[in-house]
Amino acid sequence: QVQLVESGGGLVQAGGSLRLSCAASGRAFPTRIMAWFRQATGKEREFVGAIKWLDGTTIYGDFVKGRFTVSRDNVKNKMVLQMSSLNPDDTGVYYCAADDQTGGLLRGQLEYWGQGTQVTVSS
Questions:
Q1: What is the largest CA-CA distance in the chain?
Q2: Angle at alpha carbon of residue 90, lines to 65 and 122, rounded to 5°
């Protein structure tokens, strides 16, 4: 099992920055990959970005366009999502996820999920 706890969400003005963290624990951690997803009200869950725990390789959703950065802290078992140039379209609940399998990553088919943290960007 892997437990994931997100933190760092909140209210920010458009153009601002926010830093989210995902603390991981459990006997099955580390997993091969950790990822961020988001879901706005009334919309489908969307892939934000992911990182391979072993070598730090990252991949991002098309909408990110260089505004977000995913990183990891191997010592603290923590994944970070640094977001900048935020706009109201970035509003939603941001979820941390993890899995040893990568085939379902872009479809959001990961085994372990956190409870999510709300990000609200005001215009």
A1: 42
A2: 130
Q: What is the C-alpha to C-alpha distance for residues 108 and 121, in angstroms, rounded to an integer?
A: 24
Residue with tokens 């959001």: 108
Residues 6+ apart with CB under 8 A from 77: 23, 24, 25, 29, 30
Cis peptide before 30 (omega within 30 of 0): yes
Check pLDDT > 90 for residue 109: yes
Phi, psi (degrees; rounded to nearest 5) at 90: -85, -5
Q: What is the pLDDT of residues 35-55, one digit of tens each?
A: 999 999 999 999 999 999 999
CB 37 within 8 A of CB 107: no
Encoded amino acid at 38, one letter = R
Which amino acid would we find at residue 40?
A
Amino acid in the structure at residue 97? A
Specify the 3-state DSSP secondary structure of 92.
strand
Is 37 strand, coil or helix?
strand
What is d(CA 73, CA 96) in angstroms, rounded to the nearest whole number? 15
Q: Which two tokens stand for residue 1?
A: 């099992």
